[in-house]
Design brief:
Blueprint lengths: L11 H15 L24 H5 L8 E6 L3 E3 L6 E8 L21 H9 L2 E8 L8 H10 L5 E7 L19 E9 L7 H8 L5 H10 L4 H9 L14 H21 L2 E2 L3 E8 L2 E8 L5 E6 L9 E5 L13 H17 L1 E2 L1 E8 L9 H12 L3 E3 L2 H10 L5 H7 L1 H8 L8
Parallel strand pairs: 4-6, 7-12, 10-13
Antiparallel strand pairs: 1-5, 2-3, 3-4, 5-6, 8-9, 8-14, 9-13, 10-11
Helix pairs in contact: 6-7, 6-8, 7-8, 8-9, 9-10
Length: 425
């Protein structure tokens, strides 16, 4: 999926098709496929530990809700270019709710806690055309103003009916809780907006990609940048639009990576083969860095008991111009941490990233891959002088046999076929 200067997908139908394909792959439950209304089980294996929390919440049995938004907002993809947009607000007051939308901090929590974070967020929904981001009505203006905040903001929502928990899971975005159609939104407190965010939102001559990179360089968290980007507050005036949250997550990963790749390609190569990994939330991310010009491959394996051949997408040193539609958002979510790591070290390397998904997995969004990759690369790596030693170590960190990974890998075949100039001496 190519991204024009606004950062939004060039054709909405392509973006929607990609999202639908990811949803079909990521929502693994054969009973409901992510749609709880279709479920025939008395207890959802994903939600059994958190569903009771909703039963006791009297403040969810009303058409009016007041709470401290983390802040958070969600833009749907269904029906693009007319989408559902609104804030995410928990029925919680006088508490620091910022953790509910801070995916950068979630690796230290278990699955049940993260589900409780996310499923406590009530989603207000208002249908709007994506171009309305440029001339927002009162509801959309309140959503945009709240999205700029860096601290929780008291928010009140009015609905057409009581919120209900329908389909909390999506492919790339974290889950969300009950939802209902909005009739009105009010911000009951003044949002705390970082000065740099305020400046770039007001700058209608700056391209969205430049604004995203600038905000990140100034220490604005990636989750806040994605939120601002999604509600149509970045870019040149005539190109601003609402961008579905799932697309925004991948677009921001891609934009930030593009800002680093030229820098990395100007650095000297690492001297050894390096292996690092991290495991959490029923996933493992294992990374092999090798001394070459920057190239990248992401491989992902599901249903390990069936002895699968992983799916993969890759790029050689020349980069790629097409969307990685096999592993989709997971590609960009792991490519960015690799480039961040190499840029910080002022080094260049090729990378093969293996992603495993285990049976007790819950669809939390691609942030888990991004943060696991960052956690892996923050550790001291194992270093080896030869590829054979490095791949042996990599195999010990994964449950699926290494032979399965290498059946799918394009870069491994490339490496095995390469000969160093010293081999001709």
């Amino acid at each position: 999926m190519s991204l024009p200067s606004s950062g939004a997908p060039s054709r909405g139908d392509e973006g929607l098709a990609t999202t639908l394909a990811e949803v079909r792959r990521e929502i693994a439950c054969r009973v409901c496929q992510g749609d709880i209304k279709r479920c025939r089980l008395s207890i959802c294996p994903y939600l059994d530990r958190v569903r009771a929390w909703f039963v006791d919440r009297r403040d969810l049995r009303t058409t009016n809700l007041f709470g401290a938004s983390p802040p958070s907002a969600f833009v749907g993809s269904w029906g693009y270019p007319k989408v559902l947009v609104g804030p995410l607000v928990p029925p919680v007051r006088d508490e620091d709710t910022s953790i509910l939308d801070a995916s950068e901090s979630w690796l230290s929590y278990d699955l049940a806690e993260i589900l409780r974070f996310r499923l406590s967020l009530v989603r207000g929904k208002a249908p709007r055309r994506v171009a309305e981001a440029r001339v927002p009505d009162s509801i959309l203006a309140a959503v945009q103003e709240g999205a700029m905040a860096s601290k929780p903001i008291d928010t009140e929502m009015w609905f057409t009916k009581k919120p209900v928990l329908l389909s909390p899971f999506s492919a790339r975005a974290p889950p969300s809780g009950p939802s209902a159609d909005l009739t009105k939104v009010d911000l009951a407190s003044n949002p705390s907006v970082p000065r740099r965010v305020d400046d770039l939102v007001a700058d209608t001559d700056l391209r969205a990609g430049e604004a995203v990179a600038d905000l990140y360089d100034h220490g604005i968290t990636q989750s806040q940048i994605t939120r601002i980007f999604s509600v149509g507050l970045l870019g040149t005036k005539d190109r601003r639009r609402l961008v579905p949250t799932e697309w925004s997550i991948t677009a921001v990963d891609d934009i930030l990576a593009k800002a680093l790749v030229d820098e990395v390609r100007g650095n000297s190569w690492i001297s050894d083969f390096e292996v690092a990994s991290a495991t959490g939330l029923a996933n493992t991310v294992a990374i092999l860095l090798f001394p070459q010009a920057f190239m990248f491959e992401g491989l992902e394996a599901w249903n390990l008991s069936s002895n699968p051949t992983p799916i993969q997408d890759h790029e050689f040193a020349g980069g790629r111009t097409t969307y990685p539609d096999r592993i989709a958002g997971a590609y960009h979510a792991t490519r960015l941490p690799v480039l961040e790591h190499l840029a910080a070290r002022r080094r260049q390397a090729g990378a093969i990233v293996c992603m495993e998904v285990y049976d007790d997995w819950v669809p939390l969004g691609v942030w888990r891959y991004r943060e696991l990759a960052r956690a892996a690369l923050a550790k001291k790596p194992s270093r080896f002088p030869t590829f054979e030693e490095a791949e042996a170590d990599l195999g010990h960190r994964l449950r699926l046999p290494l032979a399965n990974w290498w059946r799918a890998s394009v870069l491994r075949a490339y490496l095995r076929g390469q000969r160093r100039i010293t081999s001709y001496a």
